[in-house]
Amino acid sequence: MRPRAVLTGLARHWAWTLAAVAGLLAGGWAFYPRPLPVDVGLVREGRFEQTIREDGRLRVRQRYLIVAPTAADLLRSDLKVGDRVARDQVIARFRPVQPQLLDARARQVLAARVGSAEAARLAALATQDRQRATLAQARLDAERADRLAAERFISPAMRDQAALTLQAQSMALRAAAEQVHAAEHALDEARAALAQAAGVERDRAAPGEAGSWVLRAPVAGRILKIHQESGGPIAAGQPVVELADTESLEAVVDVLSGDALRVQPGAPVRLSLGQGVPPLAGRVSRIEPVAFTKVSALGIEEQRVNLIITVDPPDAAPVQPGDGFRVDATVTLRVVDSALTVPGAALMRIGTRWAMMVHDQGRVRQTEVQVLERGVERVWIGPGPAPGTPVVLYPGGQLQDGQRVRVRVVPAEGS
């Protein structure tokens, strides 16, 4: 055989061999499992807050409904909803609608109304005295708590509770004083009506309206509702004007009865009014002891409980909140300053235990964790991976221990 033919055969043999090896390598590369793309979060050590988020509404703390003291003819007023009124400002004017207002029976009814208003004033004064005594006791308790806390006989929480009780009693005394003012004005109104019926006294504040009498605002505030804007006959006890101090607000938030058991009076609350509006701060002042049934958006019947939240006076803002405004409330249940947390999306259930997939040099490693408390977005866990360790978010069933993965986006350290 010629040497040239031998070399040609060998070259052909090596060419086919190399082509076969290249085909095998290409097939192996094509069927070799690719790294699974995943999203990761970081293990963090820092402040952990356990909260409840629900929606609620604002309402005024003290609402005053002004009613007609007797059947009369209501005169048209220039007041509109939202107008500010001062204490003792005239908010409604009346005049007799029928001569029967001057008969003996009407005078006896008005005299009885004067007696009822006088009794209400005395009751309001008694309530004010009782609140004054309660405030004095609360002040003594607060001073005693300060001394005991300074000497470390009681906890700072008990001292704060005594201070909150003192603040609440102070506000209750203020409300009782306003009730006394309201009762005094009601008495003045009843006496004025009696004097009007007897023909002894006439209101000269409105020239040309002989025989008229007026209703005055018991407190300074804003008009919330005008029940009858136009003039016309009005019955005794019929509502005329509703007013309140719109800067003294509280929030009503309904939560699940199971969550209400974890809320403590005095818990801090953040109230969000909407995008671009600064949130309001407040504290839980009362937990109503009665639950009610409410149907959720999914059609499920739930037992819910109202939380009453005292709202701190808002700072100067372009838009001031008012009565009936909707709010998103975030109630803080627990705060831990140095807690090891992971994103809630990183946890997966394995039987009765919790685990997560830790990213380690291109592969994932399944690690069991102890869940201590759950927050809205992050979960407080027991001792585990070091802070800054990346963990896979939303691990699916196709992700196995030791599998190769590719991180799509590397999160920042503070995220």
SSE topology:
Layout: H1 3-31, E1 36-38, E2 40-42, E3 44-60, E4 63-67, E5 72-74, E6 84-85, E7 90-95, H2 104-150, H3 156-198, E8 213-216, E9 221-226, E10 232-234, E11 239-244, E12 249-256, H4 257-260, E13 268-272, E14 280-295, E15 301-311, E16 326-343, E17 348-350, E18 353-360, E19 363-369, E20 371-374, E21 378-381, E22 390-392, E23 405-407
Parallel strand pairs: 1-23
Antiparallel strand pairs: 2-22, 3-12, 3-16, 4-11, 5-7, 5-10, 6-9, 7-8, 9-11, 12-15, 13-14, 13-16, 14-15, 16-21, 17-18, 18-19, 20-21
Helix pairs in contact: 2-3
Describe, in plain words, how this protein is organized in 3D.
With 415 residues, the chain is an alpha+beta fold. The protein folds into three domains: 37-48 and 337-407, conserved putative lor/sdh protein from methanococcus maripaludis s2 fold; 50-59 and 247-336, Beta Barrel (Elongation Factor Tu (Ef-tu), domain 3), CATH 2.40.30.170; 62-244, RNA polymerase II/Efflux pump adaptor protein, barrel-sandwich hybrid domain (OB fold (Dihydrolipoamide Acetyltransferase, E2P)), CATH 2.40.50.100. The chain is built from four helices and 23 strands. The protein has a six-stranded antiparallel β-barrel. β20 (371-374) and β21 (378-381) form a beta hairpin. α2 (104-150) runs antiparallel to α3.
